[in-house]
Amino acid sequence: MAAPSAEVRVEIASDDDVVAARQAGRRLAEQLGLALTDLTLIATAISEVARNITAYAGRGEIVVRQIERRGRSGVEVIASDDGPGIEDIDRALQDGYTTGGGLGIGLPGARRLMDDFAISSHVGRGTTITMTKWAPA
Amino acid sequence: MPVPILKQGSVLIASIQTALTDTDVLRLQQKLIEQVGRYRSRGIVVDVAAIDVMDSFVARSLRAIAQMTRLRGAEMVLVGIQPEVAFAMVQLGTSLEDVHTALDLEEGLALLESLGGEAGRHGGSVS
Q1: Histidine kinase/HSP90-like ATPase domain spans which residues (chain A) (predicted)?
Q2: Which of A55, B18, B37, B123 is deepest in the core (most CB within 10 A)?
Q3: CB contacts < 8 A (A, B)
Q4: Is residue A2 in some structural domain?
């Protein structure tokens, strides 16, 4: 049995928490030995999804943890909230589409920064984004 | 944490020291636009060498500062973008094509001078 995986959990309710979440995620990824470029990509992606929480849901949570799958290790980021949900996920993932007055590159941008990216959302119940960056084999 | 703004001749230098919250960015934007008028500055250098994350909000705010500065008759140069930050910005899709950039503070000041010089020549040709 391997040692328990590292995990950090950050409550998101203000723009200070957005910074705290990306710094915590960056530290964890650093401990896992990811390269500087990957740390920056992960921290930037966390910043985008964390801001989506404060902008659309008001509050939520980000969990960053180490995962192992098929012999590879990586950093998984789970951003969840109980907010209004996303009505049209396909459109939300298109560049330039926004309902919040931003640039509309947050979600599609975060998807480009990470290796794996999945959204599950239910209108009126909330949104969960799961994204992963794999360490080089 | 507020970003210190230094006045050096006709140039304002904003040197970002730590991670910025959205509130810090908006405050910096307001202060720079106000000070550019108060000190009749010709240029602004924003030094982001200490920034490890340039997300879409910060990028959009910096572009807004550049545009507002221009509307106030001055120019802004962004300096010190770290290589891995540049990489992440391109992936994210915030390449800031319409913003002047330079490698570091020294290059940024030189660029401002050349931009100012051009404006001076235009002025000269009219008289």
Answers
A1: 37-137
A2: A55
A3: 69
A4: no
